[in-house]
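FAQ: What does the model actually see?

It sees only this:
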Amino acid sequence: MDELVGSEVVIDVDSPFVYMGLLESITQTCLLLKRADVHDLRDSTTTRDVYIREARMHGIQPNRRAVTVRQDRIISVSRLSDVIP
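And it is asked to produce this:
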């Protein structure tokens, strides 16, 4: 995943949350995102895929300056630019 550092990424986790932001660093236990959007899908009627595609088309709307995501909860990590709009 080191090649993703410095890129805007989407992180899917094993919960109803999705994380997007600039991947700042990777440690053994977590990923650090800057200018991050932390979205709880239970708070909206949209699906994960629709929410991510909208971010791809319109850009990430940050609601956190920084956030850490535990690696043991991560299902997948991809560049936002790799999302098919």
